[in-house]
């Protein structure tokens, strides 16, 4: 097991079944190489799998067995772009398992937000821009602003605080490199 994971208090190491590991591999390949999937999730069209995992899937399975962990009963997901922001390659150095509640913090909804910056939408009734945060499954409206840049400045402040608070909530339950990536995360208008 990786050294990093040995220092986690209460880390729920759970043997992952071979079937689950195979399904993870299939799902990863679908996200990277399936044109039908790319029709609904176009941001994955530029994603790839590293040669090591593509040429020998047993290397992927070994990595999964060494790195899979659980946090309570939360659904765990394979992530490629929290440790390395903007990353498009699934590889041992860029991937990590994360609880679904953490992974959802980093979704940018590019396909539905249109021309607005991340976290911002245009309110047609008010004729102003507004930021939105999803907190514990609830959509929280921020103030309304005249420009998307003003709305984004407020959104950025709240989103980074939410990510840091979530990191602190999970401290000791997630790998330290995930915790560090979260507390150092910067939300950019170009995200």
Short description:
The protein is α+β, with helices and mostly antiparallel strands and 191 residues long. 42% of the residues lie in helices and 17% in strands.
Task: Please characterize this protein's 3D structure.
The structure is a single chain. The chain has 191 residues and is an alpha+beta fold. α2 (18-33) crosses α5 and α8 (148-170) runs antiparallel to α9 (176-183). Mean pLDDT is 89; it is low at 1-11. The chain has helices at 3-6, 18-33, 35-40, 51-55, 57-67, 100-103, 110-113, 148-170, 176-183, and strands at 48-49, 76-79, 89-90, 96-99, 120-123, 128-135, 138-145. The protein is built from nine helices and seven strands.
How far do the termini sit from each other?
34 Å
Q: How are the strands ordered across the major sheet?
A: 5-6-7
Instruction: Count the DSSP helices.
Output: 9
Structural class category: alpha+beta
Order of helices and strands: HHHEHHEEEHHEEEHH
Estimate the strand proportion. Answer: 15-25%
Label the overall shape.
globular
**Mean pLDDT, as a whole number?**
89
Helix content: 40-55%
Give unreliable regions as ranges. 1-11
Radius of gyration: 18 Å
Tell me the total number of β-strands. 7
Largest sheet: 3 strands, antiparallel
Keywords, separated by commas or semicolons:
3-stranded antiparallel beta sheet, disordered N terminus, alpha+beta, single chain, two-stranded parallel ribbon
